[in-house]
UniProtKB/TrEMBL annotation:
UniProt-recorded name of the protein: RNA-binding protein
Gene3D superfamilies linked to this entry: 3.30.1440.10
UniProt-listed InterPro entries: PAB1135-like (IPR002739), Ribosomal_uL5_dom_sf (IPR022803)
Pfam families (UniProt xref): RNA_binding
Amino acid sequence: MSSVPFHYIDLRTFCYATEDEKRVTEAVRTFLPEEFEIDRVENAGHHGDRIVVLSARVERADDIRHVLTRLSELPDVETVMDELDDRVDDNCAFFLTLDKQAAFKGEVRRGAGLTLRAKVEAYPAKREAAIENARNALEDVRSTAE
């Protein structure tokens, strides 16, 4: 895969007061290249409890390939590809939620806790073109990883 049809990939999760921030950070790192910077913003919940938002924006092609390679490890990546009509919006953004608990263990599974949003390149910027580009990228990275 010489070029990647994504402008960027955003990963984001919340670390609640009941969670260990280092463990949640490790869960995010499961999808990121080594030494990638993770942004940290501390907030307060409705009842004053601490909530830390951890996020990372991946913009370089090699780093995007790394994230896509990790996504290709999904046991149900075929299902994700079949659901692209529902996962790509009118603004050419691809959405997927990942299992934060599994990610801490280094595993890649769909689930709750970690949100992935990727801006798909499409010229012209049409949803159908974005779906096709996302499908091709996932197929390319999957076949390269095999």
